[in-house]
Specification:
- Helix 4 packs across helix 12 (about 340-365).
- Helices cover about 30% and strands about 10% of the residues.
- It is an alpha/beta fold and about 475 residues long.
């Protein structure tokens, strides 16, 4: 399905606060949670408003997904190396789901046996893997790592730091603004609706969607938009509370903080009134989203994706040309019971991805929606006895109609844990051979970020990618 691009005059615009949905039970605490109170300090952008629709769906597998079991070598020689490195954490060779990359590198690969439906997506060209990617400040060799001559990501191997770096694109510092939020700041003028944020979260407040001038709109996986409790009830007490709330909202305040706060609450209330009727009347999905499967690790994961699909289905009614969604599917810190837990969780992820892709195809916009995975790091190749520990380089996946699928991008590393491996640090910790900046930059460019603005999002991108060449940073998306 092709895109139509409508050019309009370039313009600067004033960044406006997006609305997080709130209820009166959290009314007074919301002030401290608003990320941006300097609404008058706009973001001057050269981004052009686009007439087509695009959406990003970021799924954070927080805790550190052991991704060298998600995508593993299957050929005899490479599998023997994998099995020697992983010992009792290795999957049986004959259990790996065989896949054939469109761009062969002479090796055979397999997917985790729990990912049967994702294998179908991969084989159909709707999914791709990006291999051995991780947070990097500058290009780095093992010797430079040990010598300390090149800066490395702050707090390497720390959950708190690495999950922050993947969400901010700033691995050399602790940043309070996410790269998804920065993109929303740039594209604030792309949507016709000012009451609903471009950024919508199924996992509450998150760093990825926190911008300088925007915040996420919270959705609940099962019920949708979060409104003002009792707003539509007939009982006299909720009516009295609503009357009091409306009275506060309709007052005129001279204090900048009070004005900003009341403006945000008003927009939240308006956004709820517009959004919830659409979410309450979803399409009948030809491939249903199945919730609460036996043994589910996260029974609401499918419902999170279903709520995203509902929202996307109402994009025209809501006046949305650009949207960014976020889901945190946590619990991947498998220092213990890795094999059993990962099998269950990857099944949940596999089902949710397949059902969501089917929904996008049913809506006829699969090529307009790109789903991508981030995780703070992969795990050590070496076993700790019953699991694996924090490492660095990781495999990620990307899904959607715009993906140049059925391929593995980057360089899948040797899994030799001996010193002869130039990417091996110790204990099966692999250095990444691709920076997360390159991975993110390709996604940002597809969304419509001008190449010249990439350094605004990712200050280190110049070390890894020269946008003046006109080439894709990686190649997994059809730009």
């Amino acid at each position: 399905m092709g895109h139509k691009h409508h050019k309009v005059s370039r313009r600067g615009f004033l960044g406006q606060l997006s609305c997080a949905a709130v209820g009166y039970t959290t009314f007074f605490s919301t002030l401290t949670n608003l990320k941006m109170l300097n609404a008058a300090a706009g973001f001057n952008s050269t981004v052009q408003k686009s007439g087509d629709y695009k959406a990003l769906v970021c799924i954070l597998t927080s805790g550190g997904l052991d991704s060298f079991n998600m995508l593993a070598p299957r050929g005899n020689t490479e599998y023997a190396q994998y099995a020697a490195a992983r010992t009792n954490m290795a999957l049986p060779q004959n259990s790996l789901l065989p896949i054939t990359a469109a761009t062969p590198d002479g090796r055979q690969y397999g997917m985790h046996p729990s990912m049967t439906r994702s294998k179908t997506l991969f084989d159909q060209g709707k999914m791709a893997f990006v291999s051995n990617v991780g947070a990097l400040v500058q290009p780095l060799t093992r010797q430079q790592f040990y010598d300390g001559t090149i800066p490395i990501p702050l707090g390497l191997f720390s959950h708190a730091d690495q999950v922050q770096h993947w969400q901010t694109g700033v691995p050399h510092a602790r940043e309070a603004v996410g790269w998804g939020g920065k993109i929303a700041d740039m594209f604030v003028a792309a949507n016709d609706n000012d009451n609903i944020s471009m950024s919508m979260s199924l996992s509450g407040t998150n760093l990825f969607q926190t911008g300088n001038n925007s915040v996420e709109y919270a959705l609940r996986p099962l019920t949708g938009a979060v409104g003002v409790d009792g707003r539509n009830e007939n009982w006299v007490v909720p009516q009295m509370k609503m009357a009091a709330l409306n009275g506060m909202m309709n007052n005129t305040y001279s204090d900048i903080y009070k004005k900003t706060y009341t403006h945000t609450i008003k927009q939240s209330m308006l956004g709820f009134e517009e959004l919830q009727p659409i979410l309450d009347n979803p399409p009948v999905w030809t491939v249903p989203f199945v919730n609460g499967r036996p043994g589910s690790w996260n029974p609401t994961l499918n419902m999170s994706f279903e709520m995203i699909a509902r929202t996307i289905a109402g994009r025209e009614q809501l006046g949305m040309n650009r949207q960014i969604f976020f889901v945190d599917f946590g619990g991947w810190d498998h220092h213990d019971e890795l094999l059993n837990n990962q099998a269950t969780m990857l099944t949940e992820l596999d089902n949710a991805l397949f059902e969501f892709n089917a929904a996008m195809e049913q809506l006829g916009i699969a090529d307009c929606v790109t789903t991508f995975n981030i995780s703070e790091f992969s795990r050590t190749l070496a076993s700790n006895g019953n699991g694996t520990d924090h490492a660095w380089g990781a495999n990620t996946f990307v899904m959607g109609g715009a993906v140049n699928g059925q391929d593995i991008y980057g360089t899948y590393p040797q899994l030799n844990i001996h010193n002869s491996n130039p990417l091996m640090l110790y204990n099966g910790v692999l250095m990444p051979s691709m920076s997360a900046d390159e991975y993110f930059a390709e996604i940002a460019l597809w969304f419509g970020v001008p190449p010249s603005e990439l350094s605004t999002l990712f200050p280190n991108i110049g070390y890894f990618y020269d946008y003046t060449t006109g080439n894709n940073p990686v190649g997994f998306l059809n730009l």
